[in-house]
UniProtKB/TrEMBL annotation:
It holds the Pfam family Abhydrolase_1. Residues 31-141 form the AB hydrolase-1 domain. GO terms for molecular function: hydrolase activity. This is Oxidoreductase, short-chain dehydrogenase/reductase family. Keywords: Hydrolase. It comes from the Bacteria. InterPro entries: AB_hydrolase_1, AB_hydrolase_fold, Epox_hydrolase-like.
Amino acid sequence: MTSSTSGTARRITNGSVDLAVFEDGNPAGETMVLVHGWPDTHELWSRVVPFLTERFQVVSYDSRGAGESTVPTRVEDYRLPALASDLFAVIDAVSPGRPVHVLAHDWGSVEAWEAVCEPGARTRIASFTSVSGPNLDHLGKWMRRRISDRRFGGPLAQAVASGYTVLFQIPGLATLPLRLWFSRHWPAFLKFFDRLDPALVRPAPTLADDMVNGLKLYRANIRTSLFKPRERYTDVPVQLILNENDKAVRPVGYEDTEKWAPDLRRRGVDAGHWSPISHAEDIAQLAAEFVLDVEDRQWGNAPDGPSESASA
């Protein structure tokens, strides 16, 4: 197993899935687990990790279907409970008996939302910083409320932003464009889509496969969660990092999040969707500050209750 980052690499097994896990940083510090989204691997965090390693034990991993981890073939193997189970398996292996802090982006954040809303999650997850990835059930509930109130603007804006996911639902339709064009021109696409400096983008050698395999995430979860949303609550402290120029996940979709996660902080970053690449230091700083605030509250050094909303 190889990684372009420093530190150690190992494999963690969860049922039939082997996960490629990478560890770096201060073994005496609090553990922070980083979860990537589509179509990335743990390499998404390569610019963020150096800002965290002095203070934290930093753990990242390739999600199932990506990078060096197992690639299940069935769509049902990509359902959110299975992905949350992977996260818990990593947590239990790297920090047995002590909860970790989670930082996640895009689908990694969707997966982490599933985990923090599980009963007893707080015994394994001390805090969760979410970047550009909603809880799909919360999003479905919000869209239903907005439409019921005849306030269509927000749901319409998110529907337009998520229009590509409709194409991803159709087996085979997106496969050739992803393999033949997007995977070969990914830095250029991110420059167009996100105004991202292509020189900062480090595509994984598995990118074409990761793009296609990751389509199962969309097929396994979106229709069920949005059309039959569950009531999903968490008592884990949550920080939303809202990318203010995000073309894929509109900040308005988090309008009702306090209902589901009452211990909530909101922070804004003047960034597009891939802020862990373009604004790595900002993401690391906000995540670290939130961890320290949560730890201070746990040990009685700060007031209890939700953190105040703010903008970076």
